[in-house]
Amino acid sequence: MLFLIQFAIVLFCILVGAQKGGIGLGVFGGIGLAVLTFGFGFAPTSPPIDVMLMIMAVVSAAAAMQAAGGLDYMIQIATKVLHKNPKYITFIAPAVTYLFTVLAGTGHVAYSVLPVIAEVSRRNGIRPSRPLTMAVIASQFAIVASPIAAAVVATVTFLEPQHITLGDVLKVTVPATILGIGLACVFVNKLGKELKDDPHYQALLRDPNYAAQDQANVQAASGDAVNKTAKLSVGIFLFAALLVVLLGAMPSLRPVFEGKPMGMAHTIEIVMLAAGALIIWLCKPDADAITKGSVFHAGMRAVIAVFGIAWLGDTLMQGHLTEVKEAVSGLVQAAPWTFAFALFVLSVLVNSQGATVATLFPVAIQLGVPAPIIIATFVAVNGYFFIPNYGPIIAAIDFDTTGSTRIGKYIFNHSFMLPGLLSMVFSLIFGLILAQIYW
């Protein structure tokens, strides 16, 4: 009962913060933390510093690129490519983030492409919530298809005594997630009103300040002449993004400290900060324009939101971690077929694929759940989207200036819920079918 009261407090803070807008989502997380720590005596966990720093590093580089004209140049190119069939961005965006995650082993690489997805879709009249939600969902689901992700490595380790190899896991998870996400895109591509029919967006266009800024952006992006520094800034930014993917795929290229390669969080932060510095040095954008741009503002709002809400959620769950693990383990013991549901619930609560695998896979193996079932339901560890406090989710909401990507009035009716559930159900179905075929 006490847990439900505390959980309701967390949901209340998310709801009120989302309604206030701006940095409200983050600072209202502070109210929840105050209640949990001073009121209930919870020890606060460590704030999600690495996630915040990764967002700041990527946003710094992206904001510098925007000030140098690079974002407009990228949008100009993408707009030309998508001019004949702009609806394909709902399929292209998740394909890009999926590939990045598979190669890098972390879904946080999605931060670098979210502002581009948001602006390309908006300027082509496409509802940004469609490609943005699927891009974020794909960046999560691709974890189970990445050979270097911690959750996949742990899965192979647990199942190795049953003669299960990395190839056995990936031959199910890769096609299952690709097919599941692809099928979900078909449905999501029809979700919501078109921007021309969206009353909220049309009201924004009637706002003189918003309309003036939008017109200035369009004129800057549609000019025939492209500054050479804009092209250079894009080249630097894309090289940095690809370098992050390469370093994630090949840990041997990273510096080794105490016998271990440098972590991906530090790798992303260093590479992206360096990219921002190179753009400022070589392209010489206006210093004030960097911090006044829409990318910088949206990114910093996302940092504050992650700071408050993610810290609040983690503090609550860590305070009840033992009870949560026992409850979910009991569910699996009572009915092994509910393993996928147990994985989903635990991943929602602990916000970690690796922790979910480490907690439940040993239980499933001890209970005799067959390895093919474990592999087929592996994708269920991606329940991050259920409660909208995951970094890329918050960032996507802030990057969408149309307001089409949002947290709903009742929290759970947010823009990512249906895309996430569709992707989950379809991926599980394909996973179970493939497991039946292979075993």
Automatic annotation (TrEMBL):
Top-level lineage group: Bacteria
Keywords: Cell inner membrane, Cell membrane, Membrane, Transmembrane, Transmembrane helix, Transport
Membrane-traversing stretches: 27-44, 51-68, 88-111, 132-157, 169-188, 232-251, 263-283, 295-313, 333-351, 363-387, 416-438
Keyword Transmembrane helix recorded: yes
Membrane-topology descriptor: Multi-pass membrane protein
Catalytic activity of the protein: fumarate(in) + succinate(out) = fumarate(out) + succinate(in); (S)-malate(in) + succinate(out) = (S)-malate(out) + succinate(in); L-aspartate(in) + succinate(out) = L-aspartate(out) + succinate(in)
Keyword Ribosomal protein appears in the UniProt entry: no
Gene Ontology molecular function: any one: C4-dicarboxylate transmembrane transporter activity
Annotated localization: Cell inner membrane
GO cellular component entries: plasma membrane
Signal sequence interval, chain numbering: none
InterPro entries per the UniProt record, alphabetical: Anaer_Dcu_memb_transpt
Listed PANTHER family: ANAEROBIC C4-DICARBOXYLATE TRANSPORTER DCUB
Role description: Responsible for the transport of C4-dicarboxylates.
Family per similarity comment: Belongs to the DcuA/DcuB transporter (TC 2.A.13.1) family.
Name under which the protein is recorded: C4-dicarboxylate transporter
Gene: dcuB
